[in-house]
């Protein structure tokens, strides 16, 4: 089955609409141990050999926060010109998913460690665009599922699934921008420049190698359009886990063209998660 998505040309989309973007970037920290236990974070070990009662969420286990993880989060917050909370706490984000052994992710909700910052990003032609930062908060990674027996490696058609919890509990920092407005036709370029600048910053701080091709840094691209001159944001789509600079730019560009096609034919955008396909440069629901 092939599905095609209606698009309008990029130029026509920008003639009628202003894009609004929000970028959520997850960075795996390069700490030696996990966020709440002493298990190693080294890659390449046999499945489930780097686990313990804490990161498996067994009853009675007591998490203890990784001091280096907190210091790394503060460094990132300061580098992003954020205010640093003198008091913050973790929250349980409950959802049912097999790659999360505890059935909740330990994250931060209303009291993130860093908030209200900005990052000035330079584009290819030298122009500087300021991206406002909403928050940077600490959380932990999930495990990894492998679906076996099907043709595609996806869960549909698989005969069984394997779970590796070595990654569960590795420290993550999530950095969330405020809605990015005013970039106009340069929005996809701003998205790419922002992620590049953030990656260089994180490397310079020495808190992570931030290698996108290894999943150490991944970006969710939220995008909506509003008719030119409007002041109320449209409904956003969220393209998850985009894992290269080029793909960040392409995903934003594709979503601008897709949203414009839906809106200009009288349709409505549904708020949903979408997946970016490297090979076609398109997103699917
Ligand atoms: P969620 O966890 O539901 O994705 P977050 O607040 O963590 O929510 O992230 C939403 C991201 O999308 C933020 O970067 C925010 O600035 C941005 N955003 C919010 N509303 C819109 C909108 N209408 N259009 C584009 N981006 C938006
Ligand atoms: Mg999101
Ligand atoms: Zn552990």
Q: Give a list of the ligands.
A: adenosine-5'-diphosphate, magnesium ion, zinc ion
What is the CA–CA distance across the termini?
15 Å
Number of domains: 1
Tell me about the largest β-sheet: 9 strands, mixed
Number of helices: 4
Based on secondary structure, the structural category is alpha+beta
Label the overall shape.
globular
Total strands: 13
Q: Please report which band the strand proportion falls in: under 5%, 5-15%, 15-25%, 25-35%, 35-45% or over 45%.
A: 25-35%
Average of the residue pLDDT scores: 95
SSE pattern, N- to C-terminal: HEHEEEEEEEEHEEHEE
- Portion of residues in helices? 10-25%
Q: Which regions are unreliable across 5 or more consecutive residues at pLDDT < 50?
A: none
> Radius of gyration in whole Å, from Cα?
20 Å
Name the strands of the widest sheet in spatial order: 2-5-6-9-1-10-11-12-13
Concise structural overview:
The protein has 285 residues and is of the alpha+beta class. The chain has helices at 10-16, 67-79, 187-205, 245-264, and strands spanning 17-28, 83-84, 91-94, 104-107, 114-122, 128-140, 144-148, 160-164, 171-177, 217-227, 237-242, 273-277, 282-284.
């Amino acid at each position: 089955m092939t599905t095609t998505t209606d698009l309008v040309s990029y130029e026509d989309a920008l003639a009628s609409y202003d894009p609004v973007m929000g970028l959520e970037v997850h960075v795996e920290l390069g700490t030696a141990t996990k966020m709440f236990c002493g298990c190693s974070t080294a890659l390449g070990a046999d499945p489930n050999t780097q686990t313990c009662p804490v990161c498996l969420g067994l009853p009675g286990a007591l998490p203890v926060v990784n001091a280096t993880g907190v210091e790394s989060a503060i460094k990132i917050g300061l580098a992003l010109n954020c205010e640093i909370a003198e008091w913050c706490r973790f929250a349980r984000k409950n959802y049912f998913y097999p790659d999360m052994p505890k059935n909740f992710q330990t994250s931060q909700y209303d009291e993130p460690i860093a908030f209200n910052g900005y990052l000035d990003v330079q584009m290819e032609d030298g122009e500087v665009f300021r991206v406002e930062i909403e928050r940077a908060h600490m959380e932990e990674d999930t495990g990894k599922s492998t679906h076996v027996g099907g043709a595609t490696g996806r869960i549909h058609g698989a005969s069984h699934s394997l779970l590796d919890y070595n990654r569960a509990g590795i420290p993550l920092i999530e950095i969330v921008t405020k809605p990015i407005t005013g970039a106009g036709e340069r929005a996809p370029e701003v998205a790419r420049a922002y992620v590049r600048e953030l990656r260089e910053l994180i490397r310079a701080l020495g808190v992570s190698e931030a290698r996108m091709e290894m999943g150490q840094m991944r970006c969710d691209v939220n995008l909506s359009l509003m008719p030119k001159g409007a002041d109320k944001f449209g409904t956003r789509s969220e393209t998850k886990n985009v894992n290269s600079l080029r793909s960040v730019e392409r995903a934003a560009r594709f979503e601008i063209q897709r949203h414009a096609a839906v809106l200009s034919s009288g349709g409505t955008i549904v708020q949903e998660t979408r997946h970016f396909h490297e090979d076609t440069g398109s997103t699917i629901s």
